[in-house]
Amino acid sequence: MTHSRNAKALAVVITISLLRRFMSKVDINGDLDACHCWTGAKTKKGYGQFRHGGNACQAHRISYAIFIGPLEDGEEVDHECQNTSCVNPRHLRIMTKPENVADANVRRAEKRKAEEAVAADLGDVGF
Ligand SMILES: [Zn+2]
After folding, report:
1. Distance in Å, CA 20 to ligand 1 centroid
2. What's the rounded Cα separation, in Å, for the pair 21 and 91?
């Protein structure tokens, strides 16, 4: 079997103590629709980290598994809000890996286009 970098299936047995432990690290900020930022440990990229079953798991994946449902092998959880520390289940959606990559490519292309437009504008005014 070859090593796979794809996301592993994740199912969470929901208990009061798990919910308490998870929610103690979430800043709900008084608003159900706002980003709910993870206040615990984070990765360099800003993803929340949560210890579950002896592993350091990504907090947004745990949030998805708790509040929406279990994840299958290869299912990535994407932030619609682009805020990597957000664990608001309303901002999370499942994506398979190629979709996630395609989405990142679209965002990069849009950013490049915007930068080119700014550069062109600067050119127009003589910079
Ligand atoms: Zn969010």
Report:
1. 20
2. 21
